[in-house]
């Protein structure tokens, strides 16, 4: 029953999001018919195309037609590329998913060992230096970090060629090799945030009675951290990691532009600049659905964890 209510709540949120998205672009200045025909079209030609495209219909009729098309997999037609929006998604979505997945993997690989290390030696020189690094990386915007990585690692050390993106269909290995650097730009600020949160959670758990009991049984500090502290700290970190994933989805928009990654983020920026509203609507809806679904899954996991306790 709770699962059904959660699904209905998420579905309602998606419906509201889709209507607000459609309404926002419907009231923006600009005309899809004019954009398709060009500035040389006569008013009569523009009006005829508006009638053909249904732009003169009531806003609710237009929304119902668009929403029905979305449910059937028809996201509209790109004015700029002269092709279905769904074809653009199929072409660019894998690159964005690979970038986001690689960034999240880097976060997991770096965050948990560092968080445990700092919690093992709180107040040490290494811990204080780690806190300083965390604050530094948290303060650096992702796009600026991307520029630094491009200049230092790309142009300076020649570890990769900035802008020479290799798509997944040209080879998954070369694609991941190039995506590692934009993924690093996304991940490092999130690593700093995750390490700080995990360190705080572990130190909080360290003050509890069961830790003193474990020490009295002769368990070593690393064994206590790994077997006792980490499971409890991870339970508190699930919600935080969900927020991080949502931020990765949003952060990839700018990073794709910096590194020339042919993904959905770069497509969104170029489509906004070219008033390709069908593409922008579909991308905004996609990002919103990802965030809504992630939040729903996280809330469910947290609730189940609370019930198990």
In short:
With about 300 residues, the protein is an all-alpha fold. About 80% of the residues lie in helices and about 0% in strands. It is built from twelve helices and two strands.
Key phrases:
1% strand, single chain, MetI-like fold, 12 helices, globular, 2 strands, two-stranded antiparallel ribbon, 309 residues, mainly alpha
How far is the N terminus from the C terminus?
20 Å
Strand order of the largest sheet: 1-2
How many whole angstroms does the radius of gyration measure? Answer: 24 Å
Structural class: mainly alpha
How much strand content do the residues show?
under 5%
Walk me through this protein's architecture:
This protein is mainly α. The protein folds into two domains: 2-85, no CATH class; 89-308, MetI-like fold, CATH 1.10.3720.10. The chain has helices at residues 2-27, 32-37, 43-53, 59-71, 85-120, 125-139, 142-156, 172-206, 209-216, 221-259, 264-273, 277-308, and strands at residues 77-78, 83-84. The chain has a two-stranded antiparallel sheet with strand order 1-2. Strand 1 (77-78) and strand 2 form a beta hairpin. The mean pLDDT is 81.
